[in-house]
Write a structure and sequence with these properties.
The protein has two domains: about 5-75 and about 180-355, Zn peptidases (Aminopeptidase, 3-Layer(aba) Sandwich); about 75-165, Peptidase M42, domain 2 (Elongation Factor Tu (Ef-tu), domain 3, Beta Barrel), CATH 2.40.30.40. The chain has nine helices and 18 strands. By secondary structure, the protein is of the alpha+beta class. α1 runs antiparallel to α4 (about 180-195) and α4 (about 180-195) packs across α8 (about 330-345). The longest helix has 16 residues, at about 180-195. GO terms for molecular function: glutamyl aminopeptidase activity; metal ion binding. Keywords: Aminopeptidase, Hydrolase, Metal-binding, Protease. Its EC number is 3.4.11.7. Its cofactor is a divalent metal cation. One of its GO terms (biological process) is proteolysis.
Length: about 350
């Protein structure tokens, strides 16, 4: 079954432009539910905010397969409103200090309005030469207000969240730029996986969805895993590419295919699962690359849940993630989608038991 490329691009645009800072993922969750509804039998949701669509198998005692993305993106939370109408904020997620001055960000108010602002930037004319990179807490967001009363009149309050203002844009035939490709990639691939298998009878109960608060310490993954109690899990997440000066060891290269993450700071891929994925990729001629990261994914929590869950990350890489603009290659996405689809469509109970105990 082939998917409509234009529909894929439309979903990319919608998902990446949604406002979804850690702990404030409701817009993304609502979109996922709307898009997945035609392809699933029911939804399950934990108390943290994760949502999973369930495609039930007709097989008795079917094994449970979890496909886990995360909804949140790195962002900020307002901590102070100054007397002259500027906003101070703190980070939500891992963010470099030195990339935000002069950037466009948007605040989401409690009534759902999004308000544009510019991060204050000292012009060269007023610099002394002694300025270092400011701390996030020292930055100010200018939304055009003259005083705190004007800010209040726009229904902006302490605790409201901020994310980059970045329109989804095509740069070339295969490459695109957006915010939040980490990890609206995983949300998109989950929707499209369900669309691909909608008319198939699977031997497994398939749980596809997304967790919350990954960017602030993998906080939502464990509750989702405890809810589903999966027999095997596939995590779908976006990782940083380090290829601006060419290939750099196993750190991801745009256009070179899906990532098979063999080691990171939270999980080591089981050899049996590694070989399972490699065999699928080679059998179906799916472009792929090994990947190692000092960071982690929700797999770091999922694989430790209950008695242990065989878990693999099927990922893509992008340049400049955790900033205002991430550049990615759509061919890597289609390779990841192909590997995820072929890994799940013929998955049997005996294969899962092999992944569990071998």
């Amino acid at each position: 079954m082939n998917l409509d490329q234009n529909k894929t691009l439309e979903r990319m645009k919608i998902l990446t432009e949604l406002h979804g800072a850690p702990g404030f993922e409701s817009d993304v969750r609502n979109y996922l539910k709307e898009e997945m509804a035609p392809f699933v039998d029911e939804f399950v949701q934990d108390r943290m905010g994760a949502i999973y669509g369930v495609k039930r198998s007709k097989s008795a005692d079917a094994k449970r397969v979890m496909v886990a993305a995360h909804m949140d993106e790195v962002g900020f939370m307002i901590t102070n409103i100054t007397s002259n109408g500027l906003l101070q904020f703190t980070n939500l997620g891992g963010i470099a200090n030195d990339i935000w001055q002069g950037q466009r960000l948007k605040v989401k108010t409690r009534n759902g309005e999004e308000i544009l602002g510019i991060v204050a930037n000292i012009p060269k004319h007023f610099r002394t030469g002694n300025e270092g990179a400011p701390k996030i807490e020292d930055l100010l967001l200018d939304i055009g207000c003259e005083n705190s009363e004007q800010v209040s009149s726009r229904r902006i309050e302490i605790g409201d969240t901020i994310v980059p203002e970045t329109p989804f844009t095509q740069l070339s035939e295969h490459r695109f730029v957006s915010k939040a490709w980490d990890n609206r990639y995983g949300c998109l691939i989950g929707i499209e996986l369900l669309e691909l298998v909608q008319d198939m009878e699977l031997d497994v109960d398939l749980y596809v969805g997304a967790n919350v608060q990954e960017e602030v310490g993998l906080r939502g993954a464990r509750s989702a895993a405890e809810l589903i109690e999966p027999d095997v899990a596939f995590v779908v997440d976006c990782s940083p590419a380090n290829d601006m000066k060419g290939k750099q060891n196993l750190s991801g290269e745009l256009g070179e295919g899906t990532l098979i993450r063999i080691k990171d700071g939270t999980m080591i891929l089981k050899p049996t699962f590694r070989d399972f994925l490699l065999n699928k990729a080679q059998e179906h001629n799916i472009k792929h690359q090994y990947y190692i990261s000092p960071g982690g994914t929700d797999g770091g929590e999922i694989h430790k849940a209950n008695q242990g869950v065989p878990t693999a990350v099927i990922g893509v890489c992008a340049r400049y993630i955790h900033s205002t603009n991430a550049v990615f290659d759509i061919r890597d996405y289609t390779a990841a989608r192909a590997l995820l689809f072929t890994s799940i469509k013929d998955l049997t109970s005996s294969q899962i038991e092999h992944l569990q105990y071998s």
